Each structure stands twice: as C-alpha cells, then as structure tokens.
Amino acid sequence: MQKLVVFSGAGMSAESGIQTFRNSDGLWEQHRVEDVATPTAWAKNPELVQRFYNARRKNILQAQPNAAHRVIAQLQQYFAVQVITQNIDDLHERAGSRQVLHLHGNIRFARSSAPNANPNMLYPIQGDHLDLQRDLCPQGYPLRPHVVWFGEDVPAYSEAEHMVQQADIFVVIGTSLKVYPVAGLVHHVNPNAQAYYIDPNAQAQHLPTQYKKIALSATQGLSQLVEQLIQGAT
C-alpha cells in the first residue's frame, strides 16, 4: 500500500469556520499575535492568554469537520495515510483520520508551564475551559495550552521530516508556507514521489517543479485530486 502524506494548514480548518490570522491584518480575533501566542505573552499576562485559548477551544469544539477532512479519512481505504498538520484543532481526528501528527500542538490538551517541563506530558482538557487557579500540574504550576507558540521549538519537526521523505504521494493543503521551520517540509519530499499543492493562491507560490499546483480551496482541490489518486491505487 502506498504511503500518502497530507500536510495541512489553516486553509483546511477555515472551511469549518475556524479563523486564521495570516490572511487579513495580522490580528487574531482582534489580538496581536505577540500578545497571545508567545512565551513572553504568557509570562506577561497569563490571564489574557488563557482566556484567548479558552475562546479558541470553544470555537473548535463547536466546529465540525468539513468535506476535505472527511475525504482524507476516506483515503485510508486505499493508502497508508499520515496527516501532518499545522492546525491546533482536532478536526482531522474527528473526521476519522487515525494517524495525525500535530506540529503546533493540540488545543484539546494542556501541559505544565513549569520551567523545563516535559512538553510530552499532556493532560486532556474536559470541555473548553482551562483555569489558571484550579488546573495545575503535580508541581503546582498552572497548566497552559498544548500549543507551540511563536519563538518555541517544534519538537515534532524531525518526525514530520522523516514522514515526508518516506511518502510516495505528498499533498500540501491550505498552508501559506510562511511559518518556519515547518514550511521547509515541502523541500524534503522524495524526488520520485508525486507532489501536489492545493491552495487558492497556489500559482503565486514558489515551489520545486515536482509539485503540481491546484489553485482551489481545500474541499474543491481534494475533490478534483482524489479520483485521480484512487484510480492510480486500484
């Protein structure tokens, strides 16, 4: 069975009503990213950061997987599918994808804010609310969202890089490829693999000639591509 690796970005979740910040004025729900998505922001105003992510979590819990999420899950019938996502929601999992690697974390989980805390020690969050006073790690530090903030390392990057290198088919969907280091994954695909880039602004993106560009939304682009992929697998 061929290995199909899907690398998804914010454009995938946008069709489920989850807002992004890079397509407009640099604000995320009327907040500067520097004020809510950096270690400095947490140190300066953890109450604001916690409220912000509680609101994001509520939005994500109310959202539903869209047709593109469901198509990717259905492709598991024909391929060994691995999803690598920049998104902090769990919509891929709720659509039925079994192998999902979150490069930037998963907002449905929390981790300790203690100095030198193990980033892999995760605590599931029941509901949408994380409380600074009540939700504490065993050492007594507040739990913070399990999200990779700007300025933090991306622990899963090397694992993602290996997955991309092993792919027979690599499909990039709905990412602006502006956030590094993860945007660099597109350059690690095997030269013999099939590579596709689905995004409304695909034609403006500078990519290796190996990539076939599909200038459509996630849902439209996958609908166009999926029949071709399944025919090749059967």
Descriptive report:
It is built from 8 helices and 11 strands. With 234 residues, it is of the alpha/beta class. The protein has 2 domains: 138 residues, 3-Layer(aba) Sandwich (Rossmann fold); 78 residues, 2-Layer Sandwich (SIR2/SIRT2 'Small Domain'), CATH 3.30.1600. The strands form 3 sheets. It has a 6-stranded parallel sheet with strand order 5-4-1-9-10-11, sandwiched between helices. Strands 7-6-8 form a 3-stranded antiparallel sheet, with helices on one face. The chain has a two-stranded antiparallel ribbon with strand order 2-3. α5 runs parallel beside α8. The chain is elongated, with a radius of gyration of 18 Å.
Short description:
The chain is of the alpha/beta class. The protein contains eight helices and eleven strands.
Report the radius of gyration as a whole number of Å.
Answer: 18 Å
Instruction: Characterize the overall form.
Output: elongated
Number of strands: 11
The CATH C-level name of the largest domain is Alpha Beta
What is the CATH superfamily of the largest domain?
Answer: TPP-binding domain
- How many alpha or pi helices? 8
| Integer count of domains | 2
Class of secondary structure makeup: alpha/beta
Q: DSSP strand (E) fraction?
A: 15-25%
CATH topology term of the largest domain = Rossmann fold
What fraction, in percent, of the residue positions are helical?
A: 25-40%
- Please tell me the CATH architecture of the largest domain by its name: 3-Layer(aba) Sandwich
Within the largest sheet, what's the order of strands? 5-4-1-9-10-11
Largest sheet: 6 strands, parallel
SSE order, as H and E? Answer: EHEEHHHHEHEEEEHEEEH
Low-confidence stretches: none
Distance between the termini: 10 Å
